[in-house]
Design brief:
The protein is an alpha+beta fold. It has 6 helices and 4 strands, in the order H-H-H-E-H-E-E-H-H-E. The protein has a 4-stranded antiparallel β-sheet, sandwiched between helices.
């Protein structure tokens, strides 16, 4: 992975204070916290997609369009913001913050190991990203060729779709979460009355 290139993208964007595509040596538990914050979102999205697939792939497409953003919003509370994105978007409302794009670019490098990444952001917040690898089941909606009813549903729901033509193992996208750093008492403050 070309860390210099990713670092320069992040610095030019003025959004991060450390290389976004590598876990920082001292991340104050941010990596574990990011993974824990994403856990319920990923679990519930997977369950919704599995249910949608049982009702047919066009239904699963609707689940992705309607339920995925609703789940992300449900878990984006208390200063936490999360979502999904990709370098080839299906839904333009899945555009992520610039710091996430720098991590995605790193994942696209030929020698990338695509490990989860944690980033310290300039504003005292942390960012955490997990890659989504294309699995065989993903090809029904993201592979090529698509079944006619699937292609028709995607064209109707996403007229500017860019998210087909993937192969098993390709980077399909990422889950991301941004959250506040742990709050500590400032010097001279008291915890009592």
């Amino acid at each position: 992975m070309n860390l210099t290139r990713v670092f320069l993208v992040a610095v030019v964007a003025g959004l991060v204070s450390a290389c976004p595509s590598a876990t920082l040596a001292s991340d104050d538990g941010a990596s574990d916290r990011g993974a824990a914050l994403l856990g319920p979102f990923k679990k519930n999205l997977k369950a919704a997609l599995q249910q949608g697939m049982m009702d047919g792939i066009p239904t699963a497409i609707t689940v992705c369009k309607d339920e995925a953003p609703a789940l992300a919003a449900e878990y984006s509370v208390g200063g936490v913001v999360m979502g999904r994105t990709s370098h080839r978007l299906r839904n333009p409302s899945n555009t992520a913050p610039l710091w996430v794009n720098a991590v995605v670019e790193g994942y696209l490098e030929p020698d990338s190991d695509r490990q989860p990444a944690v980033t310290r952001l300039d504003n005292g917040r942390w960012g955490y990203v997990e890659p989504i690898a294309t699995q065989p089941v993903c090809l029904a909606c993201h592979g090529e060729p698509l079944a006619p009813d699937v292609a028709e549903t995607i064209a109707a729901e996403y007229p500017d779709d860019q998210a087909t033509g993937f192969k098993v193992g390709d980077l399909r996208g990422v889950f991301w979460v941004e959250f506040p750093g742990e709050q500590t008492a400032s010097p001279g403050s008291s915890n009592g009355g």
